[in-house]
Structure to design on (397 residues):
């Protein structure tokens, strides 16, 4: 619950002029374009570096977005004016690069998953605490207006006590659109690790922590071929399950099913349905920051769209701005690393359950973060002054 003191702190942070928080983007692949497009609109942030193993790729991002300078990883670590590293490296590199940044005295916002191994994730949380630094983790989509509307509706008892949910991530596979899709089919990725964090984070916000998982995995025999870019036509080796079907038990007593697939050519299932003792809720894609939230209440009337208060409706970056605000105010980042660790534990339990043909307990827990403020100026949000320029940047991949 936000207290008057917390509110005063946020207001003070907005009114008192301060230098922007220095940011470095590590990893200049496809997702970096989505971050850089938005980071430029938060006056609380200053992008100082774009770093990548491929110097030409870093140079291209700097030219495309006009932010920072192309740099090496060592230059990022050595810059005393960098307070936050935005870690967009491949999932298998998250643990090592996040640890290096923390040891260099940088707070880190890391793309999902926090790490591919639960013990690595625990070690990162411990290191951040010991170092007095902050760690935050994607997805920050749960901070958007749509998910926040759904979370508030459940908290207000709009559907009574949650009983069960169904979540479906059904896609044909990222090789259709991604020019370097190999890593999606390597250990640490696949549909569960790649897209599961969006769905699991949303389910945990709605129903609380998971206590046990049973699951089944399958690797389809479909050949994967890169569909676009300079490597179009190149075949991809598949080393991870392409379909995971999991059953989740929650500490609240609720249950849910989660299906994550890279083997669906079309689907009509809602992304998330949540059913309670006095109503049902239908949610849009949790990979997005907004979308209609529909509710059906006991007694009839069918589905009706809930009104949405003001909030963030754009793209990746609000989690980074929130981390910068947390550094200024001494608050807890809303892209909570404790939730990210719990999600890693749940995904790991699903793989163990599928391998052993049994139910696996999840021993970590987490709590819901505080609601987002409706006034985005606390994050230095300047708004999008030039829609045409923003539309141009949105097309960059």
């Amino acid at each position: 619950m936000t207290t008057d003191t917390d509110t005063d702190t946020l207001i003070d942070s907005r009114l008192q002029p301060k230098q922007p928080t220095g940011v470095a983007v590590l990893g200049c692949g496809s997702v970096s374009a989505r971050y850089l497009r938005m980071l430029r609109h938060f006056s609380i942030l200053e992008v100082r570096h774009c770093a990548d193993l491929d110097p030409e790729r870093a140079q291209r991002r700097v030219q495309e977005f006009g932010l920072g300078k192309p740099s090496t990883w060592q230059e990022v670590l050595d810059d005393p004016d960098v307070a936050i590293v935005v870690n967009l490296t491949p999932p298998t590199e998250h643990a090592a690069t996040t640890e290096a940044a923390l040891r260099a005295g940088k707070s880190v916002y890391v793309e999902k998953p926090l790490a591919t191994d639960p013990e690595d994730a625990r070690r990162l949380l411990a290191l951040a605490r010991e170092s007095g630094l902050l760690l935050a983790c994607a997805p920050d989509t749960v901070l958007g207006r749509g998910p926040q509307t759904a979370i508030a509706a459940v908290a207000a008892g709009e559907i009574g006590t949650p009983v069960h949910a169904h979540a479906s991530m059904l896609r044909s596979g990222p090789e259709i659109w991604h020019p370097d899709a190999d890593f999606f089919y390597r250990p640490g990725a696949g549909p569960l690790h790649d897209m599961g964090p969006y769905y699991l984070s949303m389910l945990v916000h709605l129903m609380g922590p998971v206590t046990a998982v049973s699951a089944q995995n399958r690797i389809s025999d479909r050949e994967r071929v890169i569909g676009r870019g300079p490597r179009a036509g190149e075949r991809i080796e598949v080393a991870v399950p392409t379909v995971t079907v999991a059953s989740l038990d929650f500490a609240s007593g609720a249950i849910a099913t989660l299906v994550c697939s890279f083997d669906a050519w079309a689907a009509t299932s809602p992304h998330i349905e949540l059913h309670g003792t006095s109503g049902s809720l239908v949610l849009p894609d949790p990979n997005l920051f907004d979308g209609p939230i529909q509710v059906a209440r006991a007694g009839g009337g069918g589905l009706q769209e809930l009104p949405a208060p003001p909030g963030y409706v754009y793209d990746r970056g609000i989690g980074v701005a929130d981390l910068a605000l947390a550094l200024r105010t001494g608050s807890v980042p809303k892209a909570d690393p404790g939730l990210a660790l719990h999600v890693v534990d749940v995904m790991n339990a699903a793989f163990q359950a599928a391998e052993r043909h049994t139910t696996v307990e999840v021993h970590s827990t987490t709590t819901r973060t505080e609601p987002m403020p409706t006034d985005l100026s606390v994050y230095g949000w300047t708004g999008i002054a030039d829609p045409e320029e923003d539309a141009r940047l949105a097309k960059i991949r």
Summary: The mean pLDDT is 93. The radius of gyration is 21 Å. The longest helix spans residues 337-356.
